[in-house]
Amino acid sequence: MSDLARTRAILADLVAFPTVSADSNLQLITYASDLLSSAGARLSVSLDPSGTKANLFATIGPEGDGGIVLSGHSDVVPVEGQDWSSDPFTLTERDGKLYGRGTCDMKGFIAASLAMAPRFAAARLARPLHFAFTYDEEVGCLGGQALVAELAKAGIKPSVAIVGEPTLMGVIEGHKGCYEYTTEFTGMDGHGSQPDKGVNAVEYAVRYVMRLLELGEELKTRAPAGSRFSPPWTTVQVGRMAGGNARNTIAGQCSVEWEMRPVHTDDSDHVKAELAAYIDDVLRPAMRNVCAHADIVTHVVGEVQGLLPVSQSEARDIVFELTGAHEAELVSFGTEAGLFQSMGMSAVICGPGSIAQAHKPDEFVEIAQLDACLGMLERLQQQLSAKD
Ligand SMILES: [Zn+2]
Questions:
Q1: How many other CB atoms are there within 10 angstroms of residue 76's CB atom?
Q2: Which residues of 348-369 are buried (b: 16+ CB within 10 A; e: fewer)?
Q3: Does the annotation mark 180 as catalytic?
């Protein structure tokens, strides 16, 4: 069977596992584990706290640091409310395209990696090759965060990550982070005629948002020189605010849903520290003057770290050589690449299919894209093979 035929067969199996983020990915992880272990890989499977999801980290080649990671997330977004022309969990070919949920985001890349595993295993690799397949990327990179923490704990230090999110096999070297929060304000309700006898949660939320907007203006002055992001600075944005009951009642509750898209973690650290200081020094003491259990609590919905483009990048150099590309771009969507960068690795995004089809009905990957991805992996195998 050709590599492409094998990739297609594996992709059909992967698409048939309905690994929507809310559900278990264990069937897929078991399937991938079987394929990798029969190719001779060493496996490490780690469950999430619920025991219904797992990360798979597998290694072919020598032990030790300095390896290359092929990274993909196993979960997909839901299909509810979407109008599909064919069953989203049955791989279907039409006009050179393979349709199904997850085909481009990002089971096509995982299928190509798995199809190539026996070839990597048969070669004598000069450095370790790792496969990292995670859970819950689409809901805040939870699996990826657990994975990098485990690698750090185990003292495993790969040096390069190729994240196979759909880029039409172009090379992507940067994206902003995406940090999402809900801040809950608990005040004390009361009659609107006596505002000083209550703690108005809506009014405290407004003050908090004003401080956030001030910081947003300040962030514009902190844009890194030569930043290629659009806009070039870290942004903050309030997407939803809800609170209170009625015009003549002091609002006891309010919540603010907001986000920050950092170009650098210095900025996000700065914003978080400034907001915490404003709460601790100004808002909470004023609330507590009236009501001892008034409070402001921020829940982290997700903190997906950005991928900062850097001048020296081994990952970019390798993928340039493998694909023949000589330019790397930035994108606006988030990936797990920033997590790998945060542990000191060089990371780049390059994978089959287009982000234009991701999360949409009739998601597809072109067969030609899978073929191009296999070409990249074949050249990687040749490059990693020990020279006698
Ligand atoms: Zn994805």
A1: 30
A2: bbbbbbbbebbbeebbbbbbeb
A3: no
C-alpha 36 – ligand 1 centre gap (Å): 22
Distance 31 CA to ligand 1 centre (A): 20
Q: What is the DSSP string of 253-276?
A: EEEEEEEEE-SSHHHHHHHHHHHH
Q: Are 187 and 253 in contact (CB under 8 A)?
A: yes
Of 75, 136, 203, 267, which residue is the catalytic one?
75
User: Is 203 labeled as catalytic in the residue annotation?
Assistant: no
pLDDT-above-90 percentage for the chain: 94
- How far is residue 174 CA from its own chain's centroid? 13
Cis amide bond preceding 231, omega within 30 = yes
- Mean per-residue pLDDT, 290-296: 97
**DSSP structural state of residue 188:** B
Q: What is the dihedral of CA 350, 354, 359, 364, to 10 degrees?
A: -110
Higher pLDDT, 251 or 265: 251
Beta carbons within 10 angstroms of residue 74's beta carbon: 28
Q: What pTM does this model have? A: 0.87
pLDDT (0 to 100) of residue 387: 66
Sheet holding 97-99, edge to edge: 92-94, 97-99, 364-366
